[in-house]
Amino acid sequence: MPPKASGQGQWALGQREPLNANEQFKQDADGLTVRERIINEYAAGGFDSIEPSDLRGRFRWMGLYTQRRPGISGGQTATLAPEELDDKYFMMRIRSDGGRLSAAQLRVVADISTQYARGTADVTDRENIQLHWVRIEDVPAIWEKLESVGLSTTEACGDTPRGMLGCPLAGLAEDELIDGTPMLQELVARFVGNPEFSNLPRKYKTVVSGCTEHCTVHELNDVAFSVSSGRTARPVSTCGSAADCRPIRSLPSGSVSSCRRSGSARCGPASPRSSVTTVTAAAATAPG
Prior knowledge:
This protein has helices spanning about 20-30, 35-45, 50-55, 80-85, 105-115, 140-145, 180-190, 260; strands at about 65-70, 85-95, 120-125, 130-135, 165, 205-210, 225-230, 235-240, 245-250, 275-280. The chain is of the alpha/beta class. Strands 1-2-4-3 form a 4-stranded antiparallel β-sheet. Residues about 230-288 have low confidence and may be disordered.
């Protein structure tokens, strides 16, 4: 007799399999609730006072990951228990939605890096900044400094609306069709830190771009807003985050998909498996 098919958590269809550990801790307490415990309990009690489901789960909702203990190779991560892997320091991810940072914000990040993170500051491919060697005792002070200049680590990690990408020349490029900055800012304000969207099945990646250069590689995101210079959408084939190809409505005039640009053999017939949804907004008028 073949094994019974898993219900995959579809409780609405009558399945009652237990939640996996990741979904269980999110049901027990929303990830956003950990902020107050970090400020009022863990910063005073130190690393050893942190409850495990907060440490390896909800901390991500505040942009914090445990660092791997020095001397442990990547090959050991599948064989050692989490408590054997954890160092007593954190990587902290700072959001930079749209990749825009003022001089004042950069000075604060530099000051935090020097004072609390051993001079580290990595710029990621999703326009975030990551600090290392951060102690839990210092997190409230770091947050205070960041928030004084409008920066945040909220939902930079976890099953949340992650950092949102934008064109680095938004509002400046002479040939852009639409400045996507106001829409991007509205999305951040509406969704980031909102408990209605803080328990997603997985991380959710968003991009808003109105330029003509395909600079944000929108097919690698879960939802992307791009523009076309014409009124009629033309189908093209692009690759999604799962390396599947699917048609989208259009690309900016004169641009090509990244998979075609690289000559990828993966590009072919549309696949129903891709998780990427691309929404293309046609410009009301072609540029002058």
